[in-house]
Amino acid sequence: MTTIETTEHPVPAPRRAPRGPGRTGPGLPALAPGLASALVWGAGQLLNRQAGKAAFFFTFFAGMVVGEIATGNYYAGMEFTARLNGGFFIRGLWGLITLGTQPREMTMTGLTEGDNSIVLMANGLIALLTLALLAVIWIWSIRDAARYRAERNAGRRAETSSAYFKRLWESAFAYIALSPGLVLLVFMSVLPVLFGILVAFTNYNRDNLPPKNLVSWVGTDNFATLFAVPSWTETFAGILVWTVVWAVVATVTTYAAGMLLAVMLASRRVRFPRVWRSVFLLPWAVPAIVSALVFRSMFNGQFGPVSQWLVDIGLTDERVYWFTDPTSPNLARAVALLVNLWLGFPFFMALVGGVLANIPDSYYEAARIDGAGPLQQFRYITLPIVQRTVTPLIILSFVHNFNNFGVIYFLTEGGPDNVDYRFAGSTDLLVTWLFKLTLDNRLYNIGAVMSLVIFVIVGAISVLNLNRTKAIREL
Amino acid sequence: MSATTGSARTRRSGSVEGRQRVRDGATSAIMHLVLAVVAIIVIYPLVWVVGSSFGPGGGLANATPIPENATFDNYVHLFTQTNYGRWYLNSLYVATINMAGSVALSALCGWVFARIRFRGRKASMLGILILQMFPSFLTAIAVYMLFLNFGLLDSLTGLALVSIAAALPYNTWLMKGFTDNLPASLDEAAALDGAGRLTIFRKIVLPLMRPMLTFVAITSFTAPWMDFILPRLLLQSSGKQTVALGLFQMITDQYSNDFTTFAAGAVALALPITILYIVLQRHLVTGAMAGAEKG
């Protein structure tokens, strides 16, 4: 390792020749300390005569090596296998790559302790994330060593390690303040997201449940199942179409109804607008889970009051089974959309109402003088102004409805049953299907693929939306 | 219940509004008819469930909006014979932790992103934007698989931590956007007077952020009461359920014979949240607008 300095010596000789008469360091090229630090962290800093910094970087290096040895079984003379002897990093990476090699077995002494693939995968992921963090420090040490040497060669004054750390401390306030949030995000969001992505490429499902069985990598088989096995593809396509129809219709109806009511309430012809407004806001204020469950009871086929009422007034001869009749899936869908309209219009009404209150009266007066009727005023003044303010919220509302777990699951639980679908009913959205796949049927791998598909769709819409807003430019 | 307050307000504002002449009688009548129909559709289910909760019956078939022999039996039954009280406390516990954690973390992070320039700022804000797009139930399912294999399921504190993390990117983004619009001159003046960064944050910026703090506090306090997916995945034993889970079970398990108890539970959950929303409606609508404008 120490041979580097000697081999590096003759190469960039011309670079250090023309330097001025100032007190430059021993004329090493910038590359040498960098390479030294790449091999043994902090060695470059030592060459630069910065003992403090060298100790700092070396601590991380030593910590990594000691940590690996302390958590593993590194005895001399023992044959090394990653599974039995590896420490936190080696065994972690081994587990991530193989997902375990020893299944649980029945032997003379009872059950042996097999490998738990999922625990191995999660540990491996944590080891990989730790290594990534260490890699950042490693690169930092290399760049610091090389850059400092280059600056010294250029005639810059020497900086002591303590001065450097003091400077660092002052600029590190942001990182320290962010660290609690960051730690929480890494362990509760980033790690699960990465884990979910990995599961999409395994056969982790009810047939391969650790610790009883081993899980293994299957490449893109799950994607192939979803997109090439007819029964799965049919279910997926059917549910996707319904989800899109649902999201579009739900958003359009709630927006239109909210807009209509807001415009009516803004009209001078309506008496007591504030009373009406308070009443209409109730569906928004009542928790959606409560309203949806109440509607579920009202539309209960056997005992619910709606069916009873229809029979009483003689509109239907027998009770209507709104959400459980497999022969009329579209009835269930229509009722779900109506219930969603009940739940969703007040939000847009409040929003549009707020915008309307801010449109100056002079606009309308000018229009009236020019001879515009009420419809023209609405078309050319109200609508464009409202549209501009509310569009981002319409897109957000679309995304929300696309993933509207609550209304569908609480109202219909996906029913009525659909015999052509795999584990799904006629009103199931992608989200509720995903939920059923994971929790009720324990098809974790297919569920993970579905999660990715939903993320891609939602992400694409969100990116389009973001490009329109100021958010990106303000980064 | 809203009928009485409605008529009281009607009389008061009636004298003011009454001065305005109604020009076109027919149009006005049609508009009021439409409004009345909508109002009935809006109110009927709510009156129905409130009425049922006071009804003596028990079965769904007997539920009526105006019970003949109104009693409090269902509420007594709810709090003595079922685990509802326990669920309520569980929800309150998760909601409180979620509110405190969300407000504290998102205010701190949002302020740092808005006011301090540091290396990696752009990259981490982009990361937050991407994480915010990832719907929280997708992470919830992965969290469930992880917790299942590490034996961490069935913890209310764990549920609260996952909830905080799930909403953190969005809340941070809101806080950052709000702080961007606060005048920086106050901070600078305080810095010249020798105030440390944390002092500036606590004494100057935090009081100015109050509207956004209120918004995040309300949303993060009310969310756990209504959330279903996360608790359904992460909680298992009956003593650890939240109100939303309990209500759902009530209506799916004991469907037709104990509907009035469910109605009482639904009212007990909905009443405080509904009042909170109506009182703070202006805050909530402006907050949602701000969120949308910032992406």
UniProtKB/TrEMBL annotation, chain A:
Family: Belongs to the binding-protein-dependent transport system permease family. MalFG subfamily.
Localization in the cell: Cell membrane
Molecular function GO terms recorded: ABC-type maltose transporter activity
PANTHER family reported for this sequence: MALTOSE/MALTODEXTRIN TRANSPORT SYSTEM PERMEASE PROTEIN MALF, MALTOSE_MALTODEXTRIN TRANSPORT SYSTEM PERMEASE PROTEIN MALF
Residue ranges of the TM segments: 54-76, 118-140, 172-201, 239-266, 278-299, 334-359, 443-466
Every ABC transmembrane type-1 domain range: 240-465
Region (Disordered): 1-27
Function text: Part of the ABC transporter complex MalEFGK involved in maltose/maltodextrin import. Probably responsible for the translocation of the substrate across the membrane.
Topological relation to the membrane, as annotated: Multi-pass membrane protein
UniProt-recorded name of the protein: Maltose/maltodextrin transport system permease protein
Superkingdom field: Bacteria
Xref: InterPro entries: MetI-like (IPR000515), MetI-like_sf (IPR035906)
Organism: Glycomyces lechevalierae
Gene Ontology BP annotations: maltodextrin transmembrane transport
Keywords linked to the UniProt accession: Cell membrane, Membrane, Sugar transport, Transmembrane, Transmembrane helix, Transport
Gene3D superfamilies reported in the protein's UniProt record: MetI-like (1.10.3720.10)
Pfam families: BPD_transp_1 (PF00528)
From TrEMBL, chain B:
GO MF term (any one): ABC-type maltose transporter activity
Main location class: membrane
A GO cellular component annotation in the UniProt record: plasma membrane
Key words of the record: Cell membrane, Membrane, Transmembrane, Transmembrane helix, Transport
CDD domains: TM_PBP2
Presence of the UniProt keyword Transferase in the record: no
Residues spanning the membrane: 29-50, 92-114, 126-150, 156-174, 212-230, 259-280
Pfam families: BPD_transp_1 (PF00528)
GO terms under biological process: maltodextrin transmembrane transport
Subcellular locations according to the entry: Cell membrane
Topology term for the membrane: Multi-pass membrane protein
Residues in ABC transmembrane type-1 domain copies: 88-280
Location of region: Disordered: 1-20
Family membership noted in the UniProt record: Belongs to the binding-protein-dependent transport system permease family.
The protein's name in its UniProt record: Arabinogalactan oligomer/maltooligosaccharide transport system permease protein
